[in-house]
Specification:
Pfam families: EF-hand_5, EF-hand_6. By secondary structure, this protein is mainly α. It has one domain (about 15-95): Recoverin, domain 1, CATH 1.10.238.10. It is built from 4 helices and 4 strands, in the order βαβααβαβ.
């Protein structure tokens, strides 16, 4: 039986890329495997950051390479991780060990 831990992300918390992806999937409200700008905005709102609408827009501009309005590939998710590290100052690592 697999044990999943509930990812509660706090500002300044360290996490792995997989934990970031798991956390982000919680905001995929339509369960289509993609993250829209509205879903990204809700994820950022959970971090209590300011100007979530603007930061979600910036994140989409940075990560959505095919401009379909969705983060829907591994490459785009990787770009979103980079955005979160650089612009949101989230501490995301390949692994914590």
């Amino acid at each position: 039986m697999a044990i999943m831990r509930c990812i509660q992300v706090q500002p300044g918390q360290e996490m792995t890329v997989e934990e970031f992806k798991t956390w982000l999937r919680r905001y995929d409200t339509d369960h289509d495997g993609r993250i829209s700008r509205e879903e990204l905005k809700e994820a950022l709102r959970s971090l209590h950051v300011w100007f979530t609408w603007w930061k979600a827009r910036q994140g989409m501009k940075e990560a959505d390479t095919n401009r379909n309005g969705q983060i829907d590939s591994a490459k785009e998710t990787e770009r979103l991780v980079n955005f979160a590290q650089q612009r949101l100052h989230m501490k995301i690592y390949d692994s914590l060990w």
